[in-house]
């Protein structure tokens, strides 16, 4: 081979390698998504924050990472046949202590796996409080629903241009570290983009996190759940970029049936990653049979009533006494169900049918 031809050959090899990598990291086809989904069984679970954590940062920081409570409460879930949890991360826990944070994720995964539970991790979130700091987290406001839950990254990204680079490093580090971990069900890249007034300001991070995830050869699929019918541009993008389609619906059975029918046309498996709001008639007794019949995964909000106080109603007026009908959640911290009929029904649907 003459020296003049070497650069041409090298360029060709690099282009070929680049093509091979990019071809592996494209959005999953309906066929691949369906084959993956069929291996999982019917997915039933909850959005999980241990009752001793007021928000996702308190859950993951070293001083308040509560393995005893995580183990006990995931045991409640396993006992009624739940096999997956949706769990929020927060980038501040990684910024403060990257290796410690990843070690705590490993500890959590080991506990969940011991209860035969897989985990869907969530990276970013546009909901609730816009200010946050590492260290001790504030106590919950009395009787307030999700009073200390944190956005990630929230409006801070508008005033700190370099934060996008840090978020890139964070997402890439977590994905590369856990890309082959079969205990992780999937990656939910961004919860409810555009919510709490963020609107179109959420586009840059949304598009970036999709690109960052596609740059890693993941064993697990990625998703970004659709949540608001009139966010047409967001919905189109999120569905197009999701390997498995996920969605939120807190309304009655007619609304849930409509959501399922509208998303079936894309030919991919469906998982509802947020539902079950008792005052809205979004109930286990009505919704689980429908979702099981349609092969739709069912992940409700949430598992154990605690410092997030999502058993209390959202919004005003604030009622200081525990509501007669819980808004969300299934168990008290001691494992007693809010409604024993519900937990018996969940167990019947998951373990007996």
Per DSSP, the total helix count is 13
What is the CA-atom radius of gyration, in angstroms? 21 Å
Shape: globular
Overall tally of structural domains: 1
Query: CATH topology, which one?
Result: TIM Barrel
Low confidence ranges? 1-23
Q: Portion of residues in helices?
A: 40-55%
Organism: Chitinophaga niastensis
Protein name: Cellulase (Glycosyl hydrolase family 5)
Signal peptide: 1-23
Keywords: Signal
Short description:
By secondary structure, this protein is an alpha/beta fold.
What does this protein structure show overall?
The protein is α/β, with parallel strands linked by helices and 353 residues long. It has one domain (29-352): Alpha-Beta Barrel (TIM Barrel). It is 41% helix and 12% strand. The chain is built from 13 helices and 8 strands. The chain has helices at 6-24, 30-38, 56-60, 67-79, 91-96, 98-114, 156-159, 163-178, 203-214, 232-241, 253-264, 284-293, 340-352; strands at 44-47, 84-88, 118-125, 184-191, 222-223, 245-248, 270-274, 297-301. An 8-stranded parallel beta sheet has the order 5-4-3-2-1-8-7-6. α11 (253-264) links the parallel β6 and β7. α11 runs parallel beside α12 and α12 (284-293) runs parallel beside α13 (340-352). It is globular and about 50 Å long. Residues 1-23 form the signal peptide. This is Cellulase (Glycosyl hydrolase family 5). InterPro entries: GH (IPR017853).
Features:
353 residues; alpha/beta; TIM Barrel; eight-stranded parallel sheet; 8 strands; GH
Q: Any chance you could write out the topology, listing elements then pairs?
A:
Elements (H helix, E strand, L loop, with lengths): L5 H19 L5 H9 L5 E4 L8 H5 L6 H13 L4 E5 L2 H6 L1 H17 L3 E8 L30 H4 L3 H16 L5 E8 L11 H12 L7 E2 L8 H10 L3 E4 L4 H12 L5 E5 L9 H10 L3 E5 L38 H13 L1
Parallel strand pairs: 1-2, 1-8, 2-3, 3-4, 4-5, 6-7, 7-8
Helix pairs in contact: 4-6, 8-9, 11-12, 12-13
